Amino acid sequence: MSNCASVALKGIPRDCASSVGGINRVAIANYADIQTVTLSTGSADTAAEITQIELKPEAKWNFYHFRKGSSNLTETLNIDQATGLNYVSSELVMTFARMESAKRAEISALALNEIVVVVEDSNKQYHYLGYSEPVAASAGTGQTGQAKGDANNYSITLQDDSETFPYFLSSECASTVFATDN
């Protein structure tokens, strides 16, 4: 018998709703600019979710848009029974078509900063990266392509290592984050 506290299982019913892949847009703020993040405790019927994110007065969200099918979020549960290792590594890969100076400068800035990220997926679900610790860049590429039909773009990978899968935002909180996105 284990000394660890037991977590009650509830099961997952078959989901008949449609679901699509991909992400629509991303909101990013500096980690140091986050004043408050409120996490609901959830209940027997609902999961915990983020209900409020408050930035410092002078801070703002920055919005990133890209072509459909060009960017993705992957959340990987890492477990090692021998060492007791258990964490989730989330990788957001954002790809921006056409290499140009302004994009190069922004990719360079993202690579240097500690940030928090809200990802809107194609199902209108909002994932919060950076709850436990700052998100940081882990890789990036720029490519001209070789043939006329090859991609010409910049790509950056942002990584979040956390104790749990990223929390979802409530619809009200997501509306507040994306309120100034035109």
Features:
mainly beta; single chain; 182 residues
- Counting DSSP H or I runs of 4 or more residues, the number of helices is 2
What does the average pLDDT come to?
92
Distance between the termini: 56 Å
- Main structural class: mainly beta
Low-confidence stretches: none
- SSE pattern, N- to C-terminal: EEEEEEHEEEEEH
Largest sheet, strands/sense/barrel: 5 strands, antiparallel
Question: Which percent band covers the strand fraction?
Answer: 35-45%
The 3D shape can be described as globular
Count of beta strands: 11
Instruction: Tell me the radius of gyration.
Output: 18 Å
Strand order of the largest sheet: 4-1-7-8-11
Explain the overall architecture:
Helix content is 10%, strand content 42%. The protein is mainly beta and 182 residues long. A five-stranded antiparallel β-sheet has the order 4-1-7-8-11, covered by helices on one side. Strand 5 (72-80) and strand 6 (85-97) form a beta hairpin. The longest helix has 12 residues, at 101-112. It is globular.
Short overview:
The chain is mainly β and 182 residues long. It is built from 2 helices and 11 strands; from the N terminus they run E-E-E-E-E-E-H-E-E-E-E-E-H. The termini are far apart.
